[in-house]
TrEMBL record:
GO biological process: 'de novo' pyrimidine nucleobase biosynthetic process; 'de novo' UMP biosynthetic process
Keyword field contains Glycosyltransferase: yes
SUPFAM superfamilies referenced in this protein's UniProt entry, alphabetically: PRTase-like, Ribulose-phoshate binding barrel
Signal peptide (from-to): none
Listed HAMAP family: PyrE
Domain of life: Eukaryota
Name of the protein: Uridine 5'-monophosphate synthase
Pfam families with a match to the protein in the record: OMPdecase
Active site: 307 (for ompdecase activity), 309 (for ompdecase activity), 312 (for ompdecase activity)
Pathway the protein acts in: Pyrimidine metabolism; UMP biosynthesis via de novo pathway; UMP from orotate: step 1/2; Pyrimidine metabolism; UMP biosynthesis via de novo pathway; UMP from orotate: step 2/2
Length: 476
């Protein structure tokens, strides 16, 4: 159905949705006009006109999309518009909450969707584009693709350009110049008011903001990151030990007997912040072995991490973790079974308040042929953020997986002498791991415990890794 654009503008003026005079905006700025499009919900005929124009615009573009398309109105004025457009176009709708739920599913985006779906964002007015950008970011965090943004009125102060520069496709149905021109032609605005609005537009362009970006995780020193409010107690403890010992070395003691475990542990203990074990793969482990390991950890100030990579349902993991919590400061887990697994561990930790305990979640693997996908990594990061009180960090290989400076990146696969083994393990140098891949804590295994002098090898790795970390933060 054809829509008379001039009619929409004059109708909006007649219902006082377009006001002219002097108005203080939310920013504190004084404006020569005010757009109050909230009132259109009380005028069904005009609301229908506006929504039909939006629907027509969407259907022209939607035909080119290969993905499922969904609609999302920026809260709150655009919500009724998006709802009617959803009915008109038969495109499903999503609702982005302004505040995340603190109960139930704790969702920020309500509605049914699949990862990778396209979303068309609908907004009533654009000035700087900030409110649209907030919605876009939350949709992208939910692994949705914002394919288009449709705005009813552009105030022509730079918001359209700002979003376009971010790579968003954005269309406005009207701009303020067109509106005042038509209203002047229809005899509804005097030449004086018309000129005052045009002058206001020219003199009130929003300058591109100089990015006040927070420092990247890799640019911040451990001391600064430890002091962040959102940093978990277990992560704070790792930072503290690393700073005290000037070590970001984790040694993986993947040996086959309890005697070898204790022998290597004692030799490398002065140089490490974390000792990584596979107790379930070692022969001859007794309660005495665990007790001796704990005494070493206390004497030499390091943490014990059992690399169990638990991945079962929440209740099973809870039962498994109860057998580890008394002695393992840290445990590794896979996120394949979702957040409920972390909830099970969280419950056990909360029951054992005498200990500072936590987990590293495996987000990436260092071996060739692993089946971890980009989507899996994104979901793993979301789980880590949700259970940040017990998550020390992520096991990963890429510098851009973790953005939060409160989480540590633990990266395995460090070996100065070798680049790979015959079972798919890929090794990296300390420089590659710390500077390129973004590791905070580096894991060294065979490069130390198979060396003729494990103590000296640990000292060399410790100094190399720590100096590379210092180089990283000093260049920031």
């Amino acid at each position: 159905m054809a829509v008379d654009r001039r009619s929409i503008i004059t109708n909006l003026y007649d219902i006082n949705a377009l006001k002219f005079g002097t108005f203080q905006l939310k920013s504190g700025e004084l404006s020569k006009y005010y757009l109050d499009l909230r009132v259109i919900v009380s005028y069904p005929k005009i609301l229908k006109q506006v929504c039909t124009l939006v629907s027509t615009t969407i259907l022209k573009d939607e035909a080119n999309s290969k993905n499922q398309v969904r609609l999302c109105g920026v809260p709150y004025t655009a919500l009724p518009i998006a709802t009617i457009v959803s009915i008109d176009t038969n495109l499903p709708m999503l609702i982005r909450r302004k505040e995340q739920k603190t109960y139930g599913t704790k969702k920020l985006i309500d509605g049914e969707y699949s990862c990778g779906d396209d979303v068309i964002v609908i907004e009533d007015v654009i000035t700087s584009g900030a409110s649209i950008l907030e919605t876009v970011i939350d949709l992208e965090k939910s692994n949705l693709n914002v394919s288009n943004v449709i705005v009813l009125v552009d105030r022509q102060q730079g918001g359209m350009q700002r979003l376009s520069e971010r790579g968003l496709k954005i269309n406005s149905l009207f701009n303020i110049t067109e509106i005042v021109t038509i209203l002047k032609e229809e005899g509804k605005l005097s030449d004086e008011v018309y000129q005052s609005v045009i002058g206001y537009i020219i003199n009130n362009q929003i300058q591109p903001a100089k990015e006040c970006e927070k420092p990247l995780r890799t640019q911040l020193e451990f001391k600064e990151r430890a002091e962040l409010l959102e940093t978990s107690k277990i992560a704070q403890k790792i930072f503290k030990i690393s700073l005290e010992k000037k070590s970001n070395l984790c040694v993986a003691v993947d040996v086959d007997t309890a005697d070898k475990l204790l022998d290597i542990a004692e030799k490398v203990a002065p140089h490490i912040c974390i000792l990584k074990t596979h107790i379930d793969a070692i022969n001859g482990v007794t309660d005495s072995t665990i007790n001796d390991l704990q005494l070493l950890a206390k004497q030499y100030n390091f943490l014990i991490m059992e690399d169990r990579k638990m991945a079962d349902i929440g209740n099973t993991v809870k039962l498994q973790y109860k057998k580890l919590v008394d002695w393992a400061d840290l445990v590794t887990v896979h996120s394949v079974s979702g957040g409920m697994m972390l909830k099970g561990i969280q419950e056990v930790i909360n029951e054992n308040t005498d200990h500072c305990r936590g987990v590293f979640i495996v987000a990436e693997l260092s071996c060739n042929g692993n089946l971890i996908s980009e989507q899996y990594i994104k979901e793993t990061v979301k789980i880590a953020e949700e259970y940040k009180d017990i998550v020390a960090g992520l096991v990963c290989q890429s510098h851009d997986v973790i953005s939060s400076p409160s989480l540590l990146q633990l990266t395995p696969g460090v070996n100065i002498k070798n680049t790979n083994d015959n079972l798919g393990q890929q090794y990296q140098s300390p420089s590659d791991i710390i500077l390129t891949k973004g590791a905070d804590i580096a894991v060294v295994g065979r490069g130390i415990y198979q060396d003729d002098n494990p103590a000296e090898a640990a000292k060399v790795y410790k100094e190399s890794l720590w100096n590379t970390y210092l180089e990283r933060v000093s260049n920031s």
